[in-house]
Specification:
The protein is an all-beta fold. Helix content is about 0%, strand content about 50%.
Length: about 190
């Protein structure tokens, strides 16, 4: 599949240009792990004119039962909090915790299956608000099927200038994993 920076949801205007609906997704960057695995995926530019970002991933970790984590601006301290609901056909569970890492499920080592997740990151350029995210995940955990819904907060008022994605246990992100970043909602001056 080819990734072309551009618009999702845009419509042609009567003047021949492109009119942006309020919620158009503008493709900013795509990272695909090719050849061999990698340890980190980094996004660090291109969203200065957007209020929110959307990260779509199709990924797998290099080991079994891998979990991805996300950090902003190289902050790896205990400045993140999360809550999530998750379940499989067997049971539903939930967690509420204050944790050092910003977690989100996006990998699977079971049967070389890839997971899919969509993460909304709000107020990325704000210097007055903490940053919040909302992630939905589909995975094949233990071949049973798995879904999750997770909210996170980065307890910082800094604008986000870098997003780093790594494997939770320090392992690799498998070849074939793909991460697409979109800008959403133009910043109003």
């Amino acid at each position: 599949m080819t990734f072309t920076p551009g618009l999702i949801g845009a419509v042609a205007s009567s003047s021949g240009g492109v009119a942006l609906p309020a919620e158009a997704w503008v493709a900013l960057e795509s990272n695909t792990v090719s050849g061999s695995s990698t340890y980190t995926i980094t996004f660090n530019s291109g969203w200065a004119s957007y209020k929110d970002l959307v990260l779509v991933s199709y990924a797998r970790g290099g080991g079994a039962a891998s979990v991805m984590k996300m950090h902003f601006n190289n902050d790896t301290a205990s400045n993140y909090g999360y809550q999530w609901l998750y379940g499989s056909p067997a049971a539903a569970n939930g967690v509420d915790n204050d944790y050092i890492d910003f977690q989100w499920y996006g990998t699977s080592g079971y049967g070389n299956n890839f997971s899919c997740s969509v993460t909304y990151i709000s107020d990325v350029n704000s210097t007055t608000n903490h940053k919040q995210t909302l992630t939905t995940v589909a995975d094949n955990l233990a071949s049973a099927g798995y879904t999750a819904f997770e909210t996170n907060v980065w307890k910082s008022a800094s604008a986000i200038t870098e997003i780093d994605l790594t494997d939770y246990s320090g392992g690799t992100i498998a070849a074939g994993s793909r991460f697409d970043l979109y800008g959403l909602s133009t910043v109003v001056a």
